[in-house]
Amino acid sequence: MKHFKNMLLGVDFSDSSGMALKQALPLAEQSNGKITAVYVAAPDEVGEYEQWYKIDPNIAQENLCDGLKKFVGHYLGTSDRVECEVIIGEPYDAITHYIENNETDLIVIGSRGNDSLARHTGHFATKCVRHSPIPVLLVRRQAKQFFKRVTACVDFSPASEDVIKTAMQVALDEEAELHIVHAVTPPWLRPSHVMYTLEPIESKDFQKDYINLLRDKLEVTTSSILDGVPLKTTLNVLEHVTPDMAITQYLVDHHSDLVVVGRLGHIRNIISQCFIGTTAERLIRHSPCSVLTVPCDLEGSS
Q: From CA 298, how far away is CA 267, in angstroms rounded?
């Protein structure tokens, strides 16, 4: 099973970045991996050093790197698993260029950076999630350092298998509980204008059979992956008018520390971007805990 061995952690010196460092370190230790903490400095930031302090841009970059090392040390102390690097450029372009030219299997970022005036996930974090070809871990500022309860969201799409495998591996590494949920809006909860005939839908037997079929499908989907795996695992089918609200409430009620969701990987055009999934998109923005997104390349799926 794949571990996250080469992590890129975007730092903007916010509290969320500090918490991201704390959550990434145990993952690196479990997988014997490394973390590259990267701060992307805007060109005008370096230009100000050159203009006001009359110093060489290279020295300015070194000073920024020293500040980055102090920031990392404040949250992690001394760790030989973390390297620090300062890149000059625009954040998203710099991160994209880095993962294209360096072996990287996970991006870790705080979900509310210094540039965010929004209520939940910041613009940069959302952009990374939408476009990154590799998994992205969004860390909430109030998150715990270790994952004790991991929840995987399964929608029976091509991404579901990777979601379950990724959540399982994290749960194994962290010795956590694994919850696997499927959220659905069943026919009897849908708006009346899409109900063709109310009588069978309102039947309690029909409703029970409908949910049992979904539960069976969830068990079949997970059984071959989890067979023999020493994890405490719970499967649940959630009924709600709005699936993401059902999942969000489940995360709160079960004190989840991490939710794993699937999304399209290598999104190549604006039309494909629309299919990131409303439920996944809302979870990314409003989840009460950290979110790990797992890309699925539909062009490579059959």
A: 9
Question: Cα–Cα distance between 37 and 109 in angstroms, integer?
Answer: 10
Q: Residues, the chain, total?
A: 302
Helix 243-253 / helix 278-286 crossing angle, nearest 10 deg? 40
User: Using an 8 Å Cβ cutoff, are 134 and 107 in contact?
Assistant: yes
CA angle 37, 41, 47 (to 5 degrees): 150
Q: Which domains does the chain have, with CATH numbers?
A: 1-142 (3.40.50.620), 146-302 (3.40.50.620)
220 Cα distance to chain centroid: 25
CA atoms within 13 A on the CB side of 225: 19
Contact 25, 79 (CB under 8 A): yes
CA neighbor of 292 nearest in space, from 252, 262, 267: 262
Among candidate residues 145, 176, 151, the one with its CA nearest the CA of residue 24 = 145
10-residue stretch averages of pLDDT, the chain, 302 residues long? 85 90 92 94 77 74 91 93 93 91 94 47 72 88 82 90 93 94 88 56 84 95 92 95 92 95 57 52 83 73 40
Percent of residues in the chain assigned helix, strand, coil, to nearest 5: 50, 20, 30
Distance CA 211, CA 214 (A): 5
Element (H, E) at 277: none
Does pTM top 0.90 for this prediction? no
